[in-house]
Specification:
Two copies of one chain form a homodimer. Chain A has 13 helices and twelve strands. Chain A is an alpha/beta fold. In chain A, the strands form two sheets. Chain A has a six-stranded parallel β-sheet, with helices on both faces. A six-stranded mixed β-sheet of chain A has the order 7-6-8-9-10-12, sandwiched between helices. In chain A, helix 7 links the parallel strand 3 and strand 4. In chain A, helix 2 crosses helix 3. Chain A starts with 6 loop residues before the first helix and ends in a 5-residue tail after the last strand. The interface between A and B is large, with 50 and 50 residues. The first copy, chain A, binds a DNA duplex (30 and 30 nucleotides) through helix 2 and helix 4.
Chain lengths: 333, 333
Amino acid sequence: MNTRPTLEAVAERAGVSRGTVSRVINDSPRVSARTRETVLAVVEELGYVPNHAARTLVTRRTDTVALVVSESEERVFTEPFFAGVLRGIGTALSAAGLQLLLAMAQSAAERARLERYLAGHHVDGVLMLSQHDHDTLPALVTRLRLPLVLGGHRQRALVYVDVDNVGGAHQAVAYLAASGRRAIATITGSPDMRAGRDRLTGYRDGLEEAGLALDDGLVGTGDFGPESAARAMGDLLDQRPDLDAVFAASDPMALEAVRVLRSRGRRVPEDVAVIGFDDSDLARHADPPLTTVHQPVERMGQEMARLLIAQMNGMPVPRPVVLPAHLEVRGTA
Amino acid sequence: MNTRPTLEAVAERAGVSRGTVSRVINDSPRVSARTRETVLAVVEELGYVPNHAARTLVTRRTDTVALVVSESEERVFTEPFFAGVLRGIGTALSAAGLQLLLAMAQSAAERARLERYLAGHHVDGVLMLSQHDHDTLPALVTRLRLPLVLGGHRQRALVYVDVDNVGGAHQAVAYLAASGRRAIATITGSPDMRAGRDRLTGYRDGLEEAGLALDDGLVGTGDFGPESAARAMGDLLDQRPDLDAVFAASDPMALEAVRVLRSRGRRVPEDVAVIGFDDSDLARHADPPLTTVHQPVERMGQEMARLLIAQMNGMPVPRPVVLPAHLEVRGTA
DNA sequence: CTACGCTGTGAGAGCGCTCACACAGAGAAA
DNA sequence: TTTCTCTGTGTGAGCGCTCTCACAGCGTAG
């Protein structure tokens, strides 16, 4: 097996023409059962595998999809978000016979290379994981007429799959209110990220529904990271020492809040209840385990793939999908 | 720009032949400066991008490398290991102008598909992340004469990049001994995984070097997961209530050990020092932050890519690389 | 002045496949 | 019988590129 067998070789050995073998390989109905059987036997015997490049050259389909993680978004690679989404995408693509190309554009040079790559139409579609509001890549991809699906982020006029951040935050606050908490504070995520803003909106909705007044003294600004949460939690306690609950827009922030609360002599959850967001490993392994809002990450990956495949098959541009989040009650609330 | 420009189009517009344009694109020295300039201008003007499939068809190179994550190894996707390795691989491949294809074979069907894919020589090389001792994929890849590099795992006669688990564990124990601990226990990883065995070896080496006796009563068997650690820690305390330090083979196990120790009335680190392994997010965000052994994950990814590229360029099969780990001293020891 | 390099360029073949079309043969309708 | 389906198969072109070979033009040596 010095040289890999071609269609031609299979055809000759099976005593048919190239075209017929091609038809068998591609499951064309216009082949007799007898012939199909013979050909498949020879395919098996010679270990024939179609040459992807040759096929792509004529069909103009690559059967490959790019997953673009734009910029150096450390946060994207965070457990369990990235891993879960990846798994979902992988499963769905694999079932459809598609390959996944992972493109991380961290530096400007890599980014330029990526743009050229996409411009070369080396993939049939693009999945993007991005948090930033202003990324020029989606526009480029659209201009290239490549099917595109965004994940974990929304952008007008584009197809995206996102989690219901508003609803998730709402649920968390509703739960706190239902357990009798009356001074419910929040530590927000970055205001320039959609997820951060949405979670704040959900917080407000929750308060409103519970008939609790919105108090700016109960809103601390964070950026999803723990350092910002330490500061915010301290400020909140200074302003409202009577607070009895905190909803943080991320798990690391919630954990940090727990730490600060304890160092200030509050018991969690007895004196102050705490809820996070993301349901990361951190939450599950914390002591006590953190009550947090769970996102269906794997499902999100699957939906992304599904919407992309639909577009690749020429179906009308699908509607964006927003997946529900749910509260995972553990030890801190 | 209905149809994408071809070499032919560039050639015509530049008033040269297809061959000459090809030479310019491929940086052949046999082109006059004048011609090169003209051609490049036209390339720019028309936005020409070479057709990858056509090129692959004749050169038999795909400029693509597969990263195979075999079986449903949840653990592989764990922070920061996978993310770090991935980043390292991405950077190195990108610099070499190579694409990264991510292949996750979770089910038997996906696995079969993957094998067929690799058999089709659709990639120029394979990187594998695997923990299991008995995986048949490396043998298959080798049989296909595809360059291969294993990561985080060792296998005789194959090229791999691994972390010095023995040395890392050794360091941890040496540190404990140096701070005056005398009854140093360990909670091991899975005995059927190389990393687990190596960390146990390092523990023994450390004890020996410090002149401490090896006591089976101080060795608890775990499987890297927290549940196993809870059990092991309990048993250890029953057998040796005098123990004053624990080296756990993973961060989740170390964290669980801390919890059990506290529930049994021990203070950490005052009464019992604890050290983990991996330097995960968990470790950094624990309270107090966990002292643990750090692995150079990003570097590991880069090395994997480097060794693979060397093989792809026809260089002699490189030697395996073992990267050093180092102790990250934080709050628990 | 002829012969021989050497450099830069062009022409042609062919990589392995799909797809449109041609066409042979069997059966049904005229 | 002839004609017209219909089914199954073969044939040829061509996807966009690289690579080998041929060769024109020039300088340099014999």
